[in-house]
Amino acid sequence: MHVSAPASSANLGPGFDCLALALDLPFELSDSPAHLDRDEQGWLVVERTHPAAVAYVLAGGEPNRPLWWRSPIPPGRGLGFSGAARVAGAYLALLTSGAEPTAAQQQAFAVAAKLEGHADNAAASIWGGMTVAAGEQALSLEMPEGLEVIVWWPEKSTSTNASRSVLAPTLSREAAAFSIARSSLWVAAIATGDLSKLRVACEDEVHQNERLLARPDSAEVLQELLANEQVLAAWLSGSGPTVAALMPAGASADLLAPRLFESGRTRVLAVSAIGVNQVSSTPNT
C-alpha cells in the first residue's frame, strides 16, 4: 500500500499552533518493496526512529514491518516534514488494519497531533486546504482559486524545540488580543474571499518577531516579500527558518530576483486541496 501526505506551512503569522496551509509537496510512504527495482525512484528504508515509523507503530502497525519513504520536503525547515511523516505513518497503519479512509483520517490526526505536541501541521496534512485546529477539533477551509505559495529556506535548519525556547514565557493581554484578532481575520478573509485583508491578518505579536530576531536572514526575506504589492500575505513558516508568501498565480516570477533568494532555496507551490490519501496498491514510477 502506498500513501501520500502533503507538507504544511503552519501559524501563518498569528495562528500559533492552530492555523496551517497544506502545500503540494508530498511525503510518500509504502509497505511494498515493488518500487525498489529501480534506484532512481529515490525510496529510502524507514528506520525505527523515523517519525513515520513511530506513528505507524503507535497507530497499531506491525513494529517490524519494512517500510519505505521518499519526499522533497526539507526536514527542519518549518514545512511540516515530521507532521506529514507522522500522518502518513499512522494513516498507512490504520488502512492496513482495515479502517475506512474517513475514520483512518480522524484517528491518524489524533496520533500525529499527539506526537507533534501541537495539531496545526497534522491537521493540514490530514485534510488539506487551510486548516484550523483547536485541541482534538479541526476544520478545513477550501482556498480560493488562482493562488500559489512561494517558499524560501536557507541551508541551515531550525529545531522546533530550540525555536520555542526563545519565546517569552508570558504574554501581555494586548499581544494576545492583537494576534487572536488577526488569526480570526485570516479565517474570515479566506471564508469570504476578501483577500485584501490578509496583509493585516498575517501580523503577529505572539511568536514571530522573537523567532525572526534569531534568524536575520529569514527576517530580511520576509520584509522584501512584504515590500512587493503583489504579495497578499507573508509569514515565518512554522518555527522557521522558511518564509512563505501567498500571492496570485503567476506573480512569483516577479519575485524571483537573485538578490532576494541567493542565500537559500526557493519553491513555488500550489496549496494542496487534498490531504493524506492512498495513492495506489502498488507504487508506480
Automatic annotation (TrEMBL):
Residues 188-256 form the GHMP kinase C-terminal domain. InterPro entries: GHMP_kinase_C_dom, GHMP_kinase_C_sf, GHMP_kinase_N_dom, Ribosomal_Su5_D2-typ_SF, Ribsml_uS5_D2-typ_fold_subgr. Transmembrane segments: none annotated. One of its GO terms (molecular function) is ATP binding. Keywords: Amino-acid biosynthesis, ATP-binding, Kinase, Nucleotide-binding, Transferase. The keyword Kinase applies. One of its GO terms (biological process) is amino acid biosynthetic process. It holds the Pfam family GHMP_kinases_C. Residues 70-129 form the GHMP kinase N-terminal domain. The keyword Amino-acid biosynthesis applies. PANTHER family: HOMOSERINE KINASE, HOMOSERINE/4-DIPHOSPHOCYTIDYL-2-C-METHYL-D-ERYTHRITOL KINASE. This is Unannotated protein.
